[in-house]
Amino acid sequence: MSDWLYLPITIHYVNTMLVNATSGTFIYNTFTGAYNIITISSISTPSSYSYSFTTSDLVKSSSIGWLPLVLEGERPINQHSNDLGFSSFLNDRLYSDGFEFIPAGTNNLAVLMFGLGSTLEGFFSLINFAKMIPFKPISAKAVSVPSKFVISCCPFSLTNVAVFIDYKARGSINYKINESGYLSDCRYLDNIMGGFVTLEENHTDRIERSLGLIAGYLKKNNGDGNLTAIISWDAIMSLIDCPLFGELETTSKEAINPSDTASKKKNNLFKSIVRISVETHDDQSFWGSGVVISKDCIITNEHVMKLDKMRSFTITVPGYSKAKITQDNVIISKCPVKGYDLCFLWVNFECKILKPVKRCISFGSQNKSLRPGAYVQSLGYGLFYLKGKSEVRPVQSEGHFNKLVPSDIGFGRQEIALIIASAGCWNGSSGGGIFNADGELVGIMTSNGKLSDGEIISDFTLVIPITVIEKCIFMLNNNYQIDATEKIKDLWHLKNNHTPYMITPAGLRNSKL
């Protein structure tokens, strides 16, 4: 049993000019009686505000009780080198990769700690300790990618606290920032900064394991996508220079995941996803992703390679950032099914650092994996480039196959020609892999859907299925190709090429099943 209990709260900040709000957490030690009230904030001059908080126990049918808080500590994140690299990672994204940090930048990002002052005893008489939740804080070392989590928070706290207090938002970790934090594609909501993040697990002892607190979100200025940022307990405890919980748990346990097998194989998958950086003749730089499908072949999208204007390119393998593969060592083959956005890169020397994926090629595996609702993971170098960094790693997302679209692509029969998946895909993810629950390659990411206003939908991912990829490999090996440009172009632009007709009552009477 854990000595620590937590209670989600919302905190309101008021000064002569502004009213602000964040989520927060009341943390209580049943053994020592010690408590902490903690949140993350981006306000300037916190000492100029007065603070109050409430929790679900204080929300009645027609009233809400608020208690004053005393600001006891402020630890600016952006001004400390001992946050284990959290702020430097965020700032690199702001200055190198075209992001904005919401809600108010990183300059004033801070951990705030509060006390109850003279209201301490009164507060304990108002809350139901039976509702407080046992938890253990864990180190980032114990967290796998991907892992599902729950945020206990109070979004839209300045509108209606009674409705949103102790709101549960859910998401999945897509990227780990060393030991300092995490990035997730879960949607950021107003006032969830400071929200308490726990792993979503199958509990046998009712003890939840906490990752850290919501710190804000990174928003790509060109509209490509957003990533919610979570600061780890490792970084928070380093910042406050206080053994808040003693030792953090570092043992990894399996969080809820549709496939334990996929989670265990994730490290092997990372090693098979490469980053492709392209320089063009007009001095522009682009990047995308690729998947190692054999010891001498990498598959990607043709649009990643910019073949019509490419001057040079380099391929970077995770864990081997200094050992780059260049165009001098690669032979490029276009897709033998003309119209598909595929490209094959053949490495013309023995390259031991390339780790091929396992491809989903058996009938039984394809029958299980290529169906609506099947669990999948996406891996690709979406959204940020990590220029000059050694920790090049792909962003990982979870989702499902939403739709498998059949078409005759030139072989005289209907077959799966396009898949739509909910696993995340962003600018830079193109050419990355889609994997099934067993860690097998089931498709290649190519593009996203867009709303009518131009907004990119990151979880509407268009995928070239493994069945098409295997056909292409066979055709390349046998010097055979077909031109399906018109059919594929219409399909991938989601263009309607079916002829509508009306079925009349007479037609129904004369029809035969």
Automatic annotation (TrEMBL):
Q: Which GO terms describe its biological process?
A: protein processing; regulation of fatty acid beta-oxidation
Extract the Pfam families matched here: Trypsin_2
Q: What top-level class of enzyme does the UniProt entry assign?
A: hydrolase
Answer whether the UniProt record assigns the keyword Transmembrane helix to this protein: no
- In the UniProt record, does the keyword Heme occur? no
Q: Which GO terms describe its cellular component?
A: peroxisome
Q: Which SUPFAM superfamilies match?
A: Trypsin-like serine proteases
Keywords in UniProt for this one?
Hydrolase
The source's superkingdom equals Eukaryota
Q: What InterPro entries has UniProt attached to this entry?
A: Peptidase_S1_PA, Peptidase_S1_PA_chymotrypsin, TYSND1/DEG15
Q: Give GO terms: molecular function aspect only.
A: serine-type endopeptidase activity
Return the EC number: 3.4.21.7
The UniProt entry, under PANTHER family, shows: PEROXISOMAL LEADER PEPTIDE-PROCESSING PROTEASE, SERINE PROTEASE-RELATED
Protein name from the UniProt record? Plasminogen
